[in-house]
Amino acid sequence: MNDSSPQGILVCDKPQGLSSHAVVSRIRRWFGTRKVGHAGTLDPMATGVLVLGLGRGTKLLGHITGVSKTYDATIRLGAGTPTDDADSEPDLIADPAVLAAVADADIETGVAALRGPIDQVPSAVSAIKVDGKRSYARVRAGEDVVLDPRRVEIDRFDILETRRDLGSGNIDVDVAVDCSSGTYIRALARDLGADLGVHGHLTALRRTRVGPFDLGAAVTIPDDLDSPTPPLLPLAEAAAALLPTVTVDAAGAKALMQGKSLAGPWTSGGEALASGAEVAVVGDGELVSVAEIRGDGSLKSRTAFAIGLA
Fold first, then answer.
1. Which residues, 6+ apart, have CB-to-CB distance to 87 below 8 Å?
2. Active site positions, annotated
3. What are residue 238's phi and psi, to 5 degrees?
4. Where is the tRNA pseudouridylate synthase B C-terminal domain (predicted)?
5. What distance in Å separates the CA atoms of residue 198 and residue 98, rounded to the nearest whole number?
6. Angle at CA 85, nearest 5°, toward 82 and 88?
């Protein structure tokens, strides 16, 4: 199972101004490896948790992409922008009298309406593909793009502070959001402003959690990429934070890597694992595979991580 190239998960605190792709490029240079990917884009203006996989860690990213996330954000009411955030200039300005009439209770009512399961129309300037082409590329080419709504879950949408500067024509609302994967926080800002009749966009965004990974585990990317690299989160540890875990011996690990099934039943933490459950299979302290419990209770590998066994 040994491999001299970097293998594992890195949780970084993305700085403002860098795209997620630019972060991947910097990590490639810092760790001296080409095989690097990330689990969920952050816009250049955003900061915070960006989870990266190195080496075989890239295989685990698909299991991280779909987890819930937490954000701190600032929504500016009183103006809308083409990108629904501060990366473009306002093109929609609220009537000052209408904005002045918006009370704190109105804002809370608008926020409450966006909690729970909602059908959200993603921002047109997004990476979603429309007929094989990124939506943002179509917008930049002058096309009028309206994306289909998507069902997302907003578990928490709390107002932390409201600041009024009506002389400048805006109300800034600091919020905290727990949400499902696929949620656009700038679309929440846009929709809150639209519901209040005053337009809205995002001026700050910081992702504080991606599933089990939070800022407490995040590293800062140095300017000097000759600096020593931090230790990576081992694949077995990262997988165990995401999925139920079962342990196999060397013979079982080899059988899984050869495409064979291991007879059940299987348990994790004393709980029986149901048919269809995805599990992390660990052998000798290393991640062997992500496997599935089949209808007959047996274990079948779906994604192999160990090498040198098959």
1. 43, 44, 45, 81
2. 43
3. -65, -45
4. 186-222
5. 7
6. 50
